[in-house]
Amino acid sequence: MSRSGASEGSEASETTQGARSPTRRRFVFDEAWAAAAAVDAVAEVLVDLEHYPEWWPQVLAVAKIDDGTARVLCRSTLPYTLDLVLTALTREPPVVEVGLSGDLVGHARFALTPTSSGGTRLAFHQDVELTGLLAVASYAVRPVLTWNHRRMMAGCRAGLAARLSDGR
User: How many whole angstroms separate alpha carbon 109 and alpha carbon 90?
Assistant: First the structure.
């Protein structure tokens, strides 16, 4: 399934593939948009996980475990907080990627490409499996979970744009 994102200049698609068991359910999300900042500036914000709660409203808390790993609590519109462990896989542009474990298992990646105007095109790709009760519930509420993910990413787009414009 392919659908347009909510903001102008963005594109998004989501696919759901069969699970290996009823307690695991795979979701793949792809989305792209442009930011009015250079690739290095965008990457600098994206690799600084500890400061995500300052600019990404749905990221509630980040606790550094070590230099490449952090525990992240996030909650979009639905009243469910995801408890994740993010492990840095790549921190250098053009790709910023983390492995995910906890309530979601898989990876999330931003591919950063310079634009002709000096900005950056961000291509976000997330390939995860839901686990436990969330996976079981996803069989009945997949469209709601997809909508919730889109709300999370709208917060990312808006928060990242604001963070980049304030020069932090």
Answer: 9
State pLDDT tens for residues 61-72.
Answer: 999 999 999 999
Neighbours of 166 (CB within 10 A): 8
End-to-end CA distance of the chain: 37
* Cα angle 127, 132, 138; round to 5: 65
The DSSP code for 57 is T
Amino acid code (one letter) for 8: E
| Pairing verdict, β 24-35 and 59-66 | unpaired
Give residues with Cβ within 8 angstroms of 89, minimum separation 6.
97, 98, 99, 107
Query: Is this model's pTM higher than 0.70 or not?
Result: yes
